[in-house]
Write a structure and sequence with these properties.
69% of the residues lie in helices and 0% in strands. It is mainly α.
Amino acid sequence: MNTLLKKMMVALLALGIGQAAWADDALNVGEVAQKEMLQLAEAGDAELQFSLGVMYEHGEGVRQDYVEAVRWYRKAAEQGDAEAQYNLGVMYEQGKGVRQDYVEAVRWYRKAAEQGDSDAQYNLGGMYYGGKGVRQDYAKAMQWYRKAAEQGDTYAQISLGLMYEKGQGVRQNYKEAINLYRKAAEQGESIAQHNLGVMYKKGQGVRQDYAKAVRWYRKAAEQGQAESQYNLGLMYEEGQGVPKNRKVAKEWYKKACDNGLQQSCDAYRTLD
């Protein structure tokens, strides 16, 4: 049973409506609970306010309405609900239901981030990295990326890894970049897998190892990562880390070409 349905049932119970009135399917529960859920939310239930925001944002059980989503997120956010604060920040950043306002986005991301919300920490890091709504500050970007990365956020691990690889806001450190990419790669993130492949091929932060480069390229390529598909094709064409095989190289070039990578289309044609 999804979380929203559970909250609807809580709303019914709070109003003294028994389980027999729910019926067994979600549609009936939704029909019975909608009015009661609204009443509880209007009365100040932050969790239900947040849930209503999600419903309106995504059009789940109601007509999609970003303005209404913002209204409910704001009610919950003003009560300190971190998820609502984060979502409200997203709405401001993207201009959904409100005029786009990076300063407001930063304000709400910060409130959620300071409560430990890793998504908000990552987004706040991104705002500092890009100078959106705040003065660009790589050190603060790293600070917030690190907080999210330490909670296992793979995008934060990748972003932090990129900053170490490029030497942005910190002294360039390929080994630290490798460590961060590996954490995200082992959780299945194709971008991190690709980046690890590149580092192993170039010997940056690790001993150059074509076989390991192939291994990581393959993991990313099998998830549809076009750059890894192309690089894997190169490895097969050149016989680096794998036996030289023009047929297999061509197959990987074709996959990357089909995914829109023009240089792979060119490489594919050269093997015809």
